[in-house]
Each structure stands twice: as structure tokens, then as C-alpha cells.
Amino acid sequence: MKSMYRFQHRNLLGIEQLSVSDIHLIFDTADVFREISTREIKKVPTLRGKSIVNLFYEPSIRTKTSFEIAAKRLSADALSLSVSDSSMVKGETLIDTARNLQAMNPDLIIIRHPCSGVPHLLAKYVEAGVVNAGDGMHEHPTQALLDLYTIKKKKGRIKGLQVVIIGDLAHSRVARSNIIGLRKMGSQVTVSGPPTMIPVRAESLGVKVVFDPAKALKGKDVIMLLRIQVERQSGMLLPGIREYSAFFGLNGDLIKGADKEAIIMHPGPINRGVEITSKAADGPYSVILDQVTNGVAIRMALLYLLIGGGKDDHLD
Amino acid sequence: MITWIKGGRVVDPRGMREKNLDIVIHKGKIDRLLPPGAFHPPRDSEIREVDASGMVVTPGLIDMHVHFREPGEEYKETIATGSKAAAAGGFTAVACMANTNPINDSRSVTDFIIERARRANLIRVYPVAAISKGMKSESLTEFGDLKQAGAVAVSDDGRPVINSELMRRALEYAAFFGLQVISHCQDLDLSNRGVMHEGAISTKLGLRGIPAASEEVMVAREIILAKLTGCPVHIAHVSAEGSVALIRQAKEQGIPVTAETAPHYFSLDHSAVMDFDTNAKMYPPLREPKDVEAVKRGLSEGIIDVIATDHAPHSELEKDVEFDKAAFGIIGLETSLPLTLQLVRDGVMDLPSAIAKLSYNPASILRVKGGTIEEGKEADLTVIDLNKEYVVRKEAFKSKSHNSPFIGWNMKGKAIFTMVGGRIVWISDERNPRC
Q1: In order of start, what are the domains of chain B with their CATH numbers?
Q2: What residue of B is the nearest CA neighbor of A171?
Q3: ipTM of this model?
Q4: For residues B154 and B159, what is the distance between their CA atoms, to the nearest angstrom?
Q5: Which residue, of A221, A231, B228, B297, has the fewest CB within 10 Å?
């Protein structure tokens, strides 16, 4: 890879820590790796001999699989531990788990945890690099990177775009990371959804708040939807899914208000008929599956930049 | 034996007096107060001289809100280690909250605490008993029996009394026995499993927020109940601007309400949580700069009567964990005095007012001895070097726990001698007592 700029980070704890140059470097690296996934033999020896632990304290299909595939295509040895077989249920503290993992000398630990700040805590106790694969309601940096990358691929740029994020902003780490990333890259961000789901002092994140999605998405270049956690609804934030879908769900009529070239994004898994109608999800505006494809390339790029040692011969 | 505290500047919050006086102590009591040079010790008596030149001498400091964890969680703190921490911080008396294990809701637990304090033999430890049995907000504890056993107040601190009827009855019943009711104000539904103040920082960090309203709603309730019953209520750990405003209004109307705040609420704001530092996690949570300013104004204007630490020791087991799972609370006994003196240097309060909030006012609210320097009274005294500068070090804490957000801070002002009933219970290491 011929780049003047070097990646200086051992960990990826949040989008917060990345500079614009870092993000461009990740994109450039992903461009190179994207091609590997289209080859007949989808494997290069770049990370041969490196061990990567996926430590998932929350269920995940997409993110875990994406990290695993990324690691395997780079020939790293990847091991996934999910909550059911971790020692969390046995009452071991996170720090003890971290120390035990460290004792086995992994190169990178990828962690997802329901509590905000856990990757930061882990990073204090292990020598291995730490990648945040989603912590509580805080950050999900790789999701934001793949979203930004998808926007760049589809729209040709990120700077100057008008982006609206609709849904349960208050409880969304995807939203937080995307807001930080989009603002860093020069987009203007509007957030929208029921007032009960917009975090207090949302403006302090540098976004505009427009509760009504019909108004919020007027003229927008990018519509980003968030998953409504149907299983977590207690009735305090929303009277019900039916009402959410009627007043805040994305349907064909709403989309007409956005820019003609607008794209629709969703971090998945989607609730068809709740935050988005099937027609909208499967329609021409949707880039939801591109996001997934790009996710592998972005994660390969990150693994390479974090533990690949910046060698020039990774594609040989 | 006679103890002679020489050359100090005596600060007596009662009457807001500041004067150079020598103090002569005999048989545990303040025998005489006289101008420097006026005391001529009788030739045949045994004299212990304490050189207090360049220092201030105050009534022994009183912390009306601590958690000593005994019985039940002795690995965090015991009455003995807590007493040591208190003495080192300049405190001669503390009131310890009832949320031990078992809860102090019966005479036997109160007896046990008093016995342990007697054995520790350092400072005065006043038990606060629970308001409700098991702190369940269902039925009252035996206030009369508890009072006889030595409890000075009742509180379910750590948990709110969620039943408003029970709180009303507690106020009425406690007033009859002369027990102070102390309220931990928290609407549990509004705090909704929150772990820090609800605001821009909780939004940024993705941590569940506790709105200031969670405290304010209950402060308002307690004031309304104090008005209804005419019985006094004391509001614990005031942290929010709105609470200060409510208490101000209540005091203007003559409602019998008093209030305390803790040093962290005037020294730190919610930005201390930024690195997910669990030593910045407490209830009520650290709030916004505007709240910090309101608390300071409340202190300055006498709306907030008392500075109490809410000393809450926790070990690494409770603190070196995920922020969501970490225990609420920090230790405070050994940092309270210098943080309060910072307010004096910042012009928020003069020295006698600050000392009043650390001694005379809590003594009056709890109706316990101390809080003044007068001939004939118990010799509970603290000698303070206002200019002593040092860095807070984890290893230096006398408390069994060191969950403090102030580790590494530069402090100014320190208790050099602490005296309880004429007995020196603390001498700062670097000072030779010259007895």
C-alpha cells in the first residue's frame, strides 16, 4: 500500500479517536481489500500467524460473521466466544476474563458488550489491541466506518451531504458513531423520531433535531434508519410498534420528499413493516446489502492497519 | 494533666468569632479560653503543650453523613478504620447511615455500632437508624427504642422512602422523640436505572441518565410534607440547581427544612465521568456546571446548612468493573476539609461560615454536643494548617477503601491535630506534637 499517511492506533475504541486522514486511509485500504472478496480464492496470507479473539457478550450475527470472514480472508486465526460459553455467567469479572485472554497472547480482541465503555476498560488491562464492535449505547465504530464508506461509494463524496437519521437515537450506538463520523467528514446531520427516543441535549452532538420524519427527510441525500428494538419496548417510550410504523416508519410516500437520488441505509437487522416497509427496503433507493458487503472490506482494512504491521506486500 | 493549645487563631462558628486565644483543657473539657500570654500554668501540674502557632483551632468537625459498612461489609470499611479516616480528616464525630447488613433498623444493631465505636475509641460515632423496617418503605422502625439505644436520626439513606404516607408519619413520629429525619431524595422511576447525570455527557457516552428532576421531585415532596406536619426534615446530599431553589423558597416560607451537600458537588461536574471513571459515579450524580454554581450559591447564602461527605467506601470489586455495574459512591472524610477550604479561598464563604457547616450546624441539626469552643464544653477540637499543601495519594488514605476521584489533586489545608474529649486522636505525620 502506497500511502504517505500511517495509521497510528493500537485500538479502535470509537470513531471519536479517528482523524479525517485516518478515515481516508481506512477507505483507501478497504478499496484494495474489496477486490479480494470477489476472487475465486478469497484468501491472502497477510495476517498469517496472527490470532484474533471475537468476544461477544451480546448476540450478533452480522457483525460477528463480518469480523470472522474478514479475519479468515486475511489468514488470521480467529476465534469467536459468545456470551453462552463465556465465563460471564460463571461470575468472572470482565478484568479477569481480559487477563486470562491476555495470558494466551492474542494480537487483537474484538469486543461487543451491553455496557458502554467496556472496550475502554478492557484496553487498560490487555496488551492486545482492542476493537469496539459495539458497546452499550455508546459507539459502534466499524458500523459507522462501513456506513461512511458506503455513502462515499454511492454518492462519490461525504462532505456537504445532508443526512437524516431516523429512529431510536437515544439507545443507538450506531447513531452516535455515525453522527461523530459524518460530522468529521463534513456532512450535515438531522435526527428524527419520537421525542421519547431522541436523547436529551441532542443538539450538543452537533445535529439538528426535527421530530417529524416527513419534514426531517425533505431534500436529504442519505436516509439512515435505525432498528427499533421491538423486544425491548416496555410501553414507556412508545405505545406500540403499530403506532411507530404509522407515524415514523419509512414508506413509499415519505421517500418522495427526499432528494431524488437519495439512498436508504439500515444497519440491520431490519424489522420489515416497522421502521421500513418491505417495498422501501427492497426498492431502488436501498443500499442495505451494499453496507454488508462493504462491512467485510472495512473490517479487513482495519485488521490490517491495526495488526498487519503496515507491510507493502500484503497482496502478494 | 492539663493540655495547653498555644498560639492558635480560634474560629468559633457560634457568633462567627475569630480570635487569637490559648485553650486550656482539663479533664476532657475546655477549662479556660484566654488571650495569648495570659495563661501561667500552675507549677506542680503536668502540662502538655500543643503548638498551634500559625494555625487555626476550630470546634471538632462533624460529618453527619457517612457509611462505615459495619456490620456486613467490613472488607470496605469498619467502624475502626472509618474512625481513623475521620480523625485524619479533622473529624471528631460522624453520623453513620443505616444501610449496613443487617440494616440498622433495630436496637441490637444500634447497640452493636455503639459498642464497636467504643472499642475503636477514637471519635464519636452517632448511629442513624432506618426509617422503615428493612428499608422497604412499608412500616416504621421503633424510633423510641432506637433513640434510647443512641440513634440521633432516622434515614433510609441509599434508598428513598417511596411511600409518601410513610414519610409523613415518620416526620410526625420522629419529631415526638426528637429524632432528625434525613431524606435521600430520589424518584426511582425517574432515575430509571440511570448511572450518571442526564445531560450532554450522558448523551455523548451513551450512559443511562438520571435527570435532576429525579432529586427535585422528592425534595419538593419532603418540603410539602414538612409543611403539612410542621416537623423538620433534613435533605441529604443536595446536588441540583432546582433542589437549591426549592429549599430556598421553603426556608423563606419558614418551613422547617435543612440541607446538606457534599464536597464533590461543589468541586466536580459531570465531565469527570468522561473516561468512564467509576470513581466519578455516585448518587446523586455529578451534575452540570450550573448546578455546581447553584450549590456554591446555596452554601454562600445559607440555603445549604451543612457540608457532609456521604463517605461511601467501596473496594476494587465494586469499582474496577463496567461503569453500568459499578457501585455508587466515593470516600470523602479525608478530602472534605481541603475542598471546603478551597471555597473559602475562592470567596464563596468566609472561614467561620465554612467551619459552621462542618461543625456547629450539623451539631444543631442532630442535637449532639460540639460545634462551639466555649469554656465548660467538651474539648472536641481540630487544629488546621490552612497553608499546608500536598497531593492526595491513594496509599495515604486511612480509610480501608480508596475510591476517590480526588487522587492526584493538589490540596491546600490539612488537619494537624484532632482532639476528642481532650484526647489527641490524630497528629499529622509530619508534625512533632512537642507534648
Answers
A1: 58-366 (3.20.20.140)
A2: B206
A3: 0.92
A4: 13
A5: A231
